[in-house]
Every structure is written in structure tokens, then in C-alpha cells.
Design brief:
Elements lengths: L12 H34 L4 H29 L1 H20 L4 H29 L5 H26 L5 H7 L2 H11 L6 H6 L3 H11 L5 H14 L13 H16 L2 H6 L1 H7 L5 H25 L5 H24 L1 H4 L3 H17 L2 H12 L5 H53 L8 H9 L10
Helix pairs in contact: 1-2, 1-4, 1-5, 1-6, 1-7, 2-3, 2-4, 2-19, 3-4, 3-6, 3-7, 4-5, 4-18, 4-19, 5-6, 5-14, 5-18, 11-18, 11-19, 13-14, 14-17, 15-17, 15-18, 15-19
């Protein structure tokens, strides 16, 4: 058995710098997910809200995310990945300021829609960017950096929530703090180039050579350029659109992966962590917020596990492990609330343990692996548009789940709400087994050739 090693090589230093800076976009997305959890109870002190209004305050960012993801898929193919990432930094910086100074629930919802536009843009373009700059042997690890940054953003948001919880204007400080990571992304990405595959598609081969020399200095650059050009040429068609019938399947699989990632309930846990812990018996808002910090830490650490193993054992094994753990965590959380009277004061600890199991399982599988797969399986000729479609689906599912969560809690109760998501996890296991291909160690160009040749997902080959 080979000893475990990370695929870090000193000559890849600039590759990792580029990947780390681009991944800061995930930090913004994660910060937005996590910060509303701590801010929501204090927003309710300022403006009392019913379940629907509460759902809109949380899910307004998701509405914006759908707009951002939908509007920028074609733009990413036209103008490049880098310019879209720069735009997200500008929008997020302005929107954080507007959130902090909102004077009504309506203004807050509008500001969160604006933040969502930036999140939607960055969520589809950063995994795309990372996938296209990464050598195939470390592609899973580098694309996982996006999810690691999301978990870091969530943890940062929870820490910010704890820092400002007892401060005057607490929720305003929490939401306004997003200004600072947005500024860091904006400055960092300004110094980076675009991806070689995008540059070659725009007939800018000399620029692509410079990027390849920076990120893969030991590779046969001319062979890579010819391989990419061949893939682009094979997608040409006399019709006005580059779309072909074989492209339907990878897009459907990508949308299915987004369904599995979101509809197993992750954002009900992330957005409503503080609320769930209050339901479970954490008597104060402050105590519930501090409990979420521990959840954020687990989320971050387990994402590191995924980064270490996704290029070692593959994407599908991690998905099997993760979906099994998600099912157990949701089932346990449902039983905890169902038998709350028997558990008494122990309810909060059983609920906390169940959420930890859930988060740990999700963080080492569905979170990072979902974005790895959709960034790998989509056809190069329409990759920006297809990635946008998958991201729109992600946020569409997200909107439905987050908006409906407080309503489901109100009408069917906590146990059946969490058991509903557990049932979805079981269905997703079958989907992964039959329809999701294993892409570990296969180049993006070879993945596309498998789709073109109608190779079944369970028989993909290098």
C-alpha cells in the first residue's frame, strides 16, 4: 500500500497561488450562507416577522443567486472567467454596505438579493476557473479549495456572529462585515490571468502558453494546446448553436448532482443552525450562536478530509460515504425532536450530535465533490452556459428548500421535516450509483470523449 501523500510540488507554487486567490470567491458565498444564521434572531428583534417573511429574508439572497448564475453563463464564455470574478467582488462590496444600513425589511431583502447576484456569479465561475487551470492529477483537490473556502466563510460568519452578538446594532455589524473579504478577493483576482482553455477558444494561444508555463511548467504545452483545439473543433456544427444531442446527458447529470447536494437539506442546517439549536433547547441566542461555531469548525475540518482523498479514492466512494452519513444524521435529528419529551435536557446534545454527523458527512462528500463533478463533466464548447444552468438549478433547489423550511416546521413539525430530507438522501444514493461517472484521473478532454461516444456512466475510461 502506497503511503499517503499530498500532490504538492514546489514547481506548482504559482498554480496553488492562483487557485487560492480564486477560491476566495467561495469565502464570500460561505460568509453569506453562515452570517444570516447568527443575524436572523436579532433582525427579528428589530422587525418582528412571520414564517413567510423570515423565509424571504433568508432566501432573498438565493433569488439573487439565480439571477447572477443565469445572467452570467454566456458572459463567462464571451468575456472570460476572470472578469466575472472581478465583478462579483465589486457587487458584494457594495451590497454588504447596503445590508448594514437597511432601514426596513424590504430594503434588507433588496440588499440581500444584490448580494445573492454576486454569490450566484461566483458560485458557478470559480469551480469552472479552478477546473480549467488544474492538472488532472490534482484537479479534484484544487476544485475542492472552492468548497473549503465556502466552509471557511461559514466559519468566519459564525465567529463574526459570536463577536458582535452582544454589540449594539449587532446584526448590522454581522452583515456589513462581508465588505472585507469581498475587498480581498477584488484586489487578489486583479493580478491573475484567465484560463488556458478559455484563451485558446478566443484564439489567444500565446497568452495560453504563458499561463501554462506558469501553472504547469513541466507539461508538454504544445500537445495540451493541440488537444484543447481538437476538442473545440470536434464540437463545431453547421448550425448557429454549438449544442448537440449528446450534451443533454452531462447537463442532466450535473443538475442531478446539484439536486443531491441541496435537497438533502444542507442549507436548512447552515441558514437555520441557530434557530434549530433554539428549538432544541439552547436557552439563549448567544448560546445557540456559540454552538454554531463548533458546527462551522467541523464543516471546515471535514472539507480538508475531502481535499486529501478526492484524488486518492475517487469521487463516487466519497459520495456513498457522505450520503450514508447524511441519512443517519437526518434520521437521528428527526428522532431527537420526535422524542423530545423523553430526552428532556439531553435533547440539545442529541440534536447537536446529529447535526455534527450530518455536517461531517456532507463536508467530506456532497459539498466539495458536487462542485468537482459539475466542473468536470460539462462539454468545453458550452461549459460556461452549462455550468450556469447547473448553478441556476442549485440555487433554484436552494430557494425552494430554504423558503419552505420554516413553513414545513410550522405545519408538519421538526421530525417529519428532517425525515423527508433523509428519504431524499436514499434516492440520491441510487442516482449516484447508476448515473454519475467516476472522473478521478481522467482529463477533461477524455471525459468529454466518453460522453460523445455514449459510454455509460459506470464504465467511463481514461
Amino acid at each position: 500500500m502506497k503511503p499517503f501523500t499530498l500532490n504538492f510540488k514546489p514547481r506548482h507554487f504559482w498554480l496553488y497561488v492562483v487557485a487560492a486567490v480564486a477560491s476566495l470567491g467561495g469565502l464570500l458565498a460561505g460568509f453569506d450562507m453562515g452570517v444570516i444564521s447568527g443575524a436572523l434572531p436579532f433582525i427579528e428583534d428589530t422587525w418582528p416577522m412571520n414564517a413567510i417573511t423570515q423565509g424571504w429574508v433568508v432566501s432573498a439572497a438565493i433569488v439573487g443567486s439565480v439571477i447572477g448564475a443565469a445572467a452570467n453563463g454566456i458572459l463567462a464564455d464571451w468575456f472570460g472567467r476572470k472578469k466575472i470574478i472581478v465583478s462579483t467582488g465589486i457587487i458584494f462590496t457594495a451590497a454588504s454596505f447596503f445590508c448594514a444600513y437597511a432601514q426596513s425589511v424590504g430594503q434588507l431583502i433588496a440588499a440581500r438579493i444584490l448580494i445573492g447576484i454576486a454569490v450566484g456569479m461566483v458560485t458557478f465561475v470559480v469551480p469552472l476557473y479552478l477546473s480549467e487551470i488544474s492538472p488532472q492529477k490534482v484537479r479534484g483537490m484544487l476544485v475542492s479549495l472552492f468548497q473549503l473556502a465556502i466552509t471557511a466563510g461559514i466559519l468566519l460568519a459564525y465567529l463574526v456572529g459570536g463577536l458582535f452578538a452582544e454589540h449594539a446594532h449587532n446584526w448590522r455589524w454581522m452583515l456589513g462585515s462581508g465588505f472585507f473579504p469581498a475587498l480581498v478577493l477584488l484586489i487578489g483576482i486583479s493580478f491573475l490571468g484567465d484560463t488556458p482553455r478559455l484563451l485558446i477558444s478566443k484564439k489567444r494561444e500565446n497568452e495560453a502558453r504563458k499561463v501554462f508555463n506558469l501553472i504547469e511548467p513541466e507539461s508538454d504545452i504544445e500537445a495540451k494546446i493541440q488537444d484543447i483545439k481538437q476538442t473545440l473543433d470536434s464540437g463545431k456544427t453547421p448550425a448557429k448553436t454549438p449544442f448537440r444531442a449528446w450534451m443533454i446527458m452531462p447537463i442532466l447529470v450535473g443538475v442531478g448532482i446539484m439536486f443531491a447536494q441541496i435537497c438533502t437539506g444542507i442549507n436548512t442546517i447552515i441558514y437555520y443552525t441557530t434557530t434549530i439549536f433554539k428549538f432544541a433547547g439552547f436557552s439563549s441566542k448567544i448560546g445557540a450562536i456559540y454552538a454554531t461555531i463548533g458546527i462551522g469548525l467541523v464543516n471546515f475540518v471535514m472539507t480538508l478530509v475531502a481535499i486529501a482523498f478526492t484524488d486518492k479514492i475517487g469521487r463516487k466512494p466519497l459520495l456513498y460515504i457522505g450520503l450514508g452519513g447524511v441519512f443517519i444524521g437526518l434520521l437521528s435529528l428527526g428522532f431527537a425532536f420526535r422524542y423530545a419529551d423523553l430526552l428532556g435536557d439531553n435533547l440539545r446534545w442529541v440534536a447537536l450530535g446529529s447535526v455534527i454527523i450530518y455536517i461531517a458527512a456532507f463536508a467530506c462528500s456532497l459539498g466539495p465533490v458536487g462542485w468537482i463533478l459539475v466542473s468536470e463533466i460539462l462539454p468545453l464548447k458550452i461549459r460556461g452556459l452549462a455550468m450556469s444552468l447547473c448553478t441556476v438549478a442549485n440555487f433554484g433547489f436552494n430557494f425552494a428548500v430554504v423558503l419552505s423550511f420554516p413553513v414545513m416546521i410550522e405545519h408538519i413539525g421538526e421530525p417529519f421535516t428532517f425525515w423527508f430530507y433523509a428519504g431524499i438522501a436514499v434516492l440520491c444514493l441510487f442516482f449516484v450509483y447508476f448515473l454519475v461517472p467516476e472522473t478521478k484521473g481522467i482529463s477533461l478532454e477524455k471525459i468529454e470523449k466518453n460522453w460523445v461516444n455514449h459510454v455509460p456512466a459506470r464504465k467511463f475510461q481514461d
